[in-house]
C-alpha cells in the first residue's frame, strides 16, 4: 500500500454496527478518517437494499463517498456469517470486490482493507449453537485470507476475544468500546509509519504476512488446546455472568465457550494462567448455589 508522506491521507470506513464504536471523523497531522456505519449491513442482502452493500456501492451516495478517497476499510461480515455458510458469504464477497473494482477503477487493490469477522455468541436460526456458529466464523476468516490474495487486498485481523462481547453476545461491551477503535487506529497509523521508512527497505509480501499470521494463530490455538479448563455449569450462568464473575476475580483468559451438556471451556494462552485459574475455580464453582449476578 503506497501513500504520499507529504500529504494528509484520507480513509473511509464502511461498517456495520461495529462502526458505532468509532468516531464519525478522526483527524491527525498525517491522516483523516471518516466512518459511515449502518447497523445490520451485509455484503449482500436480497431482502433490503438499504442493508445490501452490493447494491449500495452502485448508488450516487456511495459514489460520492468513494470519490473523496481511494483508501477504504470495510468493517463488515458478522451479519452475513451469522446467517449463511462461510462459503456462500465468500462467494458474495468475491462478486462484491469484482463489482467494486469494475465500477471504481481508481481503487487499486492495495488500497482496500477488509477486517476479519469478530467472534459472536448470538446464535441464529441457521446456527443454533455457539460451536457451529464459531466454526463458521473461523472458516470464513480462513477463506477471507485466501480471497485477499486474488484481489490483492489487505486483511486486518481484529483478534477480538469473547470477553469483549456485550450481554447480547453480538456487540462490543461498553467496557471495551474505547479499546476497540484503537485496533483500527493503530493499523492505519502503522500504514503511515511504514510509508515513512526508507524506500530501499523491501517489505514482505502480503502472502508472507498472511502466512506468518496463520502460523501465529495456529500456534496460539495449539497452545490453547493444552491450556483449557473445563467446568460443569448450571443453566443460570450466561456468558455475561461468567465474564463478570471472572473479571471480578481477576482471572485472565483468552476466550470461553459453553458447550452442550452444561460444560464450560475456558481457553488460556499459557499453562501458568490456566493453573492459577484451576486453583481459584473449584469444580462446582458454576452451580446454582454460587450464581453470581455481577
From TrEMBL:
Top-level taxon of the source organism: Eukaryota
Q: InterPro entries attached here? A: SGNH_hydro_sf
- SUPFAM superfamilies with a match to the protein in the record: SGNH hydrolase (SSF52266)
In terms of Gene3D superfamilies, this protein maps to: SGNH hydrolase (3.40.50.1110)
Q: What is this protein called?
A: Uncharacterized protein
Q: Which organism is it from?
A: Rotaria magnacalcarata
